[in-house]
Design brief:
alpha/beta; Rossmann fold; 2 domains; six-stranded parallel sheet; 14 helices; D-inositol 3-phosphate glycosyltransferase
């Protein structure tokens, strides 16, 4: 049995780790088709460099099932083999992402009309797919009903061993200043400017910014003295720093993509406070943190949160956390089922 993953770009660290984990439970071969190999080859996965994959080139790999991102430009894959699309965004999230760089009302209206037209194509490829794997509630609510075999999952890289380590960390008890971390690209879509607004309102709190990006120099010039920029960290270092140094994660993403950082912070035993976008409020409602409307409300929440609340959220998050290995195995089982159905259906 052969699984073929068609990537829109070079394989990054997250894709490499995910495909390697898929290969541990997939009953056969795993092949990744990418424009170029990327940073490294996943373990037990054959990488085929294909700048412009076609129906003929993918069919030549003899896939039993194909996995690709939920994008209209990948719709042709459904004519090649049973195809499962990974859906992450709904129309609202895509619209929010583009509106962040819009220049004026006319540009915003043009973007909205374009997204409305493009939504028909997203819905069409969802209907044509053999299955959907929906990363988060937004994609699930938008597209699951269109698919005969949808699966809901939460994408992250927190392993069982990470959860064990997180359970051993002590909760902040107020004996030192509260330490709050933002993690992500320093770009407008992640909201680092909001972090600085909050930091100005809370001079008694320490803030760490973990990540790099185009706004770093501007943010550093504007940052108050209680903010420290740590730059990009590899994932193993990031997990260690989050577990050992951070009491609360501030992730004020203005648009509601299903960011793995929410889950990865929680998987390090760090409660999350975020904003009212398309994704975080439903997770906060599960008792995983707090969703606030703006910088002033975020600052009020951070100032008022106590050790007991932090401990309750941390305990709840870790006790119900599905580790990376289980998420990958469940996704593989879904793909195996779809491949098996295709083999037996007339």
């Amino acid at each position: 049995m052969r699984l073929v993953y068609v990537s829109p770009g070079p394989l990054d660290a997250k894709a490499v780790e995910g495909l390697s984990e898929f290969a541990t439970t997939w009953p056969g071969d795993v092949v990744a088709v990418a424009p170029e190999a990327g940073i490294a080859a996943p373990e037990r996965v054959r990488v085929v460099a294909e700048p412009a994959p076609s129906a003929a080139s993918v069919r030549a790999l003899a896939p039993d099932v194909v996995l690709a991102l939920h994008r209209p430009e990948f719709g042709w894959l459904t004519e090649v083999a049973p195809t499962v699309f990974t859906a992450e965004f709904d129309r609202r999230i895509r619209l929010e992402q583009q509106h962040l760089t819009a220049e004026g009302a006319i540009d915003r209206a043009r973007i909205a009309l374009g997204q409305l037209r493009r939504e028909r194509a997203y819905r069409d490829v969802a209907r044509r797919a053999a299955g959907l794997q929906c990363n988060g509630y937004a994609a699930w609510d938008a597209y699951a009903a269109l698919s005969p075999r949808p699966l809901l999952f939460r994408d992250h890289r927190i392993r069982r061993a990470d959860l064990t380590a997180a359970m051993e960390r002590p909760t902040w008890r107020g004996e030192r200043p509260l330490r709050v971390a933002f993690s992500g690209r320093l770009t407008a879509v992640k909201g680092p400017g909001t972090v600085l607004e909050v930091a100005r309102l809370l001079p008694e709190v320490e803030f760490l910014l973990l990540g790099d990006g185009e706004l770093r120099a501007d943010l550093q010039r504007a940052a108050p003295s209680n903010v420290r920029f740590e730059g990009f960290l590899d994932f193993e270092t990031w997990k260690s720093r989050m577990r050992e140094e951070v009491d609360l994660a501030l992730l004020p993403h203005p648009q509601g993509d299903p960011s793995g950082t929410y889950y990865e912070a929680l998987g390090c035993g760090v409660p999350v406070v975020g904003v009212q976008n398309a994704t975080w409020p439903r997770l906060a409602a599960e008792g995983l943190g707090w969703a606030e409307r703006d910088a002033k409300a975020l600052a009020h929440r951070i100032r008022s949160v106590g050790p007991e609340q932090l401990d309750a959220v941390r305990t709840r998050a870790l006790s119900g956390f599905e580790p990376f290995e289980s998420v990958a195995a469940r996704r593989v089982a879904h793909l195996v089922e779809i491949a098996g159905r295709a083999r037996t259906d007339p």
